Protein 1
Amino acid sequence: MLAKHQEPFAWRLDRSTTENLDITAEKLSLFYSMKGELHDCLVKMACDNLHHPASVYQATLLAKLAPPPGAALDCETKGDTSAKTSGAAKSKGTIKLGHIDDAVGTEAMKDYSVNEYKGRYLPINKKKWPVEVDCLKQIIAYCQDKKIPLVIVNMPLTQRNLAVLPQDFRDQYEKTIKSICTPKPGDTNLSFIDLRNDTRFALSDFRDTVHMRSSGGTKLADLIAPVVVSQISRNNGEEAVNTRFASKADHLN
């Protein structure tokens, strides 16, 4: 079925007058057809400038970090620098909503990150997990069948983020992923890069407990790029790529 903005223009009797006018406006104005995206951008800009959470979810996470009534604040939102904080509170630093830079995040930001992932993943959805595993298997099988090069990366994370999940589930996750993603003999189109416990990534490479700074991103790109190059060279011939990078990938599989 075509989306409304893809349909040829026609005033249809099975639609209400409002719907027909809406589609007409979308056909006549690019800005009107992008009203949803523009709305989201304006909301984000307003929230950034007013130092206000953009959603109930974000506000809930901030509330979890708020100190008890009467206690000194242990974090500040962007622009709110007037509150007096104790020495212990100041050591937490600030949370700047909508603010991006390349510095290592404050303890307040890391607390926010941990609470966010607790909200996302706890309790473990034991019904959803096997469905996700099956989807991954289907992606691998499809790529193998169509001879599509596939590189799977088990991303590096901080121990603080990993500790959000119960140890038994973490063990199950690692075992399952390695079993599914490790190439079998003859799997020339599949590569698995396991960086989950790679000691080359330091805490200073992360902005919060998950997302990397430029130093971590550079390390990650340097480790992934040779594997991609190797995959391309195996599928398209050595002359198709600069093979001097490919030799670096041998120890990763």
Note: The chain has three domains: 4-33, 55-99, 128-252.
Protein 2
Amino acid sequence: MPQFQYQIERSRKLTASTRITISEKKGVIVRAPFWVPEFSIRNFVEERSDWIMGQLARINKKKIQDKKYEEGELHLFFGKEYPLTFDHSTTPTRTQVSIFDEKIIVKIFSGHETEKKKSETKDAILRCDHLNENKILQSTAASYLMPFVSKQLSDPNGIFMGVNAYNNSLVFIDPFTSRNNNINIFGVSGSGKSVTAKILMNRLFMRGIQIIVIDPEGEYVELARSLGGEVIQFSRENGINPFFIASSEENEILDHISTIKTFLKFFIPTHHYEGAILDECLIKLYDSGSPNFSNLLELLGEHQMRKDLSVLSTGSLRGVFNSERKLELTNDMIVLDLHDLKKDEKREPAMYLLTSLIWNLVNKNNDKKRMLFIDEAHKLLADPDVALFYRELVKQARKRNVGVVSVTQDVEDFLKNEYGKAIITNSETKILLKQSYATLTDIGTIYPMTDEEKTNLGHLGIGEVVLFREEEHTRLNIVVLPHEKSLVFTR
């Protein structure tokens, strides 16, 4: 049965059709031909009941808005209607409202004209505090009313990132104007991490900043080629010489030896590894002036580590890390493509080695702004020595005019690793895309958010992010500009 009453008006016209009219005075009128039975009319009305209810609601709303605020007029208060009555004062006074003897009493100056009287009465009723109860609201509770409150994020010389989801302001950021230049991009698979990273790469590249990318999956190869960049692919046919160092200074050679030791640990079982012996052999190797795998294996003699490392020289990994190719950073867009290194046992040491070599190279010339993007960055946390190097790289990046962009879907690896936490806290700009529900509790321990904000992280759509920067955070919708679509949507 409909939740409203209606009247039926019959028409004698043979061509008449059944229709409904709704007015404030007459209510719901159903006009139907005389030959239409009542059950058909009833079905006709029930099928349109939602529309009728909507029209009646609009009429009732208009009635409320059209109150005349006159003596005896009924007004709703806490679900009950009370008549309006006036207590006129001969002296000018502030209009006041009270409830007494089942009436709404308005004390008002009698000298007001009709429109002024109506306006004063309406304002007084709307602002009247009939409950007269005050409570202290704690800041934690108040924060739920305004979950994302922040100043406008706009660096004057920054790159365009997107639109603030709460005030529609444009968001611009310049990584090189904050306390450090580092950025985190964290999100589950399919949330838009790669697209966000490509947007950053493209817009920073257009500002003259050199872009260097460690790319385990070949995600950024097409972008680099489209922008005239250099793609350095790694495989057995296209390897790298890990022993090469351009400098002849002793301190720099010793630092490089430390890098090689950590790199070689990836291929030596723990129960075979002897750091002191390996260190001694590497020093002799560089003192000889001919650092290469063959000479290193000869210096190791009959030690078990020789058999373990032979896989790099003559075994299944020959050519990958036993090549004459030297790493140079001459192009303004360089992607180091590790896609052909199919197994993680090859990719993880390659990621560490390349990051270390890049780090040594950028130390030579720090007047140029550079951004080093590390995709699948969680893999650098697998080994404690590598994780320590990664943390120091992030902490010292600003001194070398470099920003480190850590991109990963495994934020949990960062949150449960002390070095990982240090990397997060030493990254001034943090971009959080959709997160898995399992990590929301851990995320709250390092990112300053309310429970409501943490819950929202699990519901973000593609391209929706929470941006943390300089102790502020806000919801942001990443915007891909029309001319960028062919660049960022390449896979």
Note: The longest strand covers residues 80-89.
Protein 3
Amino acid sequence: MAGDCTSADPALVAAYEATAPAARAALHDARADELDARGTSSVRLGALPFHRERGSDPTGAGASGLLDAIERCVLEGFYDAVVELGPRCSAVLDWATRTTDCWVVTAKVTTALQALDRPEEAEARYDQACAATISPSVHLQPAYGRAMLYTRFFTGSRRDHQKAKSWVNTAISLSTLLPDDQRRAFNTTFNENGLALVEMHLGDLAEALRLVERGLARLDAEVDPDQHTQHRSVLDYNRAQLLVALGELDEALPAYDGIIAADPHHSEYYFERASVLRRLGRPADAMADYERAVLESPPYPEPRAGPRRGRRPGQPGRPALRGRRHRRRRGGPDRRAGRRRDPTLRENRAVAYAASGRLPEAVADCERALEHPDADVGSLTALLDRCRGRLAPSA
């Protein structure tokens, strides 16, 4: 037991299996108590819940240990571990008596499966949850989740924006039946924000903007101002992006100014405002925003990967609280430095440098960007040649 059951020694395995169940559970309890007393956080993700779920109280101490572990793994972005922990949590929980905990596990596992590009498995988890209970809250949330699967995560023939719209309308309908005024207002707005994403995918940007602005007005009128501040921020951000997509740059710029004032350390805001500033003919201000985006960028790939993968201009980001909540730092300083070598920001900053006449800096950014394996070689080479040509002395 001191080796936390990691040995493959046949003699040890046989001795473990020959031990009476009650005695074996007592050994797991003792080992769990020993590990818990150390106060080491890492054991709470592996060895400690392992022993608790095999001890004398699997549905009590075991469930608590597993729920703590799966929460930590979601927050840290350990999505493979979340998927592995899910069935273990479910084995010690009961939908009839612990509905909320069972749904929390389902929500975390489906989030992880979506992040791992496994949407079909997420859909199966939603089906299992809805088959296990008649709880209105549980049925409301998978309706929204299925909508996101069909409009965002499924690919090819499985992507179906109309089916997504039917599911998110179901979520909105259930939200309007909630008895508490503020909860009803929040959930209706949350799910209408998802509908806005679907409408955008269907090509109706004006309707998407109307839904977002209606949601903001509803929250202002019906929800306490200190509640759901993160979701208000998401709505403000989506509004800014939709204004850009509709070509309303003069309205989009103050919208970005407002969200940056409220959250000045989010790199995407600077990155996207820089694009607006460039289109408004303000390259120096755009360049300053690109530089700030690099300084503020945490070590995750989305702000760079999105533009490289052809994200539509003005596309609302993740259309709900879950959008940025699960972005977490991964890796140490070396990995963070690696992220900053991503070519997208360097290329855009090079464009701003070139427009401002700072040609040596533009050349340097192009050369650095071209070192990256994901660089757009054609675009960067053309820009580099233009800058070098302008730097060449006149004949």
Note: Confidence is low (pLDDT under 50) at residues 299-340.
